[in-house]
Amino acid sequence: MTALTLQLPPHLKLTDEEFEQIVAVNQELRLELTADGELVIMSPTGGETGNRNFDLLGQLWLWNSQNNLGKAFDSSTGFKLPNGATRSPDASWLKMERWDILIPQQRKKYLPLCPDFAVELVSETDDVEDTQGKMLEYLANGLQLGWLINPKDKLIIIYRPHQAPEVLQSPTNLSGEDVLPGFILNLQPIFA
Question: Where in this chain does the record put each Putative restriction endonuclease domain (predicted)?
Answer without folding.
Answer: 17-187
